[in-house]
Design goal:
By secondary structure, the protein is of the alpha/beta class. The protein has one domain (3-119): 3-Layer(aba) Sandwich (Rossmann fold), CATH 3.40.50.2300. The protein contains five helices and five strands, in the order βαβαβαβαβα. Strand 1, helix 1 (11-23) and strand 2 (27-31) form a beta-alpha-beta unit. Helix 2 runs parallel beside helix 3 (60-68). This is Response regulator. Residues 3-119 form the Response regulatory domain. It comes from Sediminicurvatus halobius.
């Protein structure tokens, strides 16, 4: 299974993501904002990153940009999991290098299916 970094300023969302992914056998590390997420990604390699968009400090789109600038994360799947659904925000995420976009509240099976698809 994969090592996944979940970045979200909501403790309850981090817990739900962690529960969903660990039940499927993945190893999960989490961070409460983009700054912590970037630091965690620089300390340890992850097979995928799931991040919120709206967070204090570095937002999710900027986190995607900064991760893509790191050699170890040029091709790592990065999913944005957010309440945002505006087409212009999705375009910003895509331009930053995000692999996919999921809207909260998320369905655990949809999150797992999307993750399985991008990890192949």
């Amino acid at each position: 299974m994969a090592a996944i970094l979940a970045v979200d300023d909501s403790a309850s969302i981090r817990q739900m993501v962690r529960y969903t992914l660990t039940q499927a056998g993945h190893q999960v590390a989490d961070a409460a904002d983009g700054n912590q997420g970037l630091a965690a990604a620089q300390r340890q390699g992850f097979n995928a990153v799931i991040t919120d968009v709206n967070m204090p400090g570095i937002d999710g789109i900027e986190l995607v940009r900064r991760l893509r600038a790191l050699p170890n994360y040029r091709f790592t799947p990065i999913l944005l999991l957010t309440t945002e659904s505006a087409p212009e925000k999705k375009q910003q995420g895509k331009a930053a290098g995000a692999t996919g976009w999921l809207v909260k509240p998320f369905e655990p099976q949809k999150l797992l299916a999307t993750l399985d698809r991008v990890l192949r």
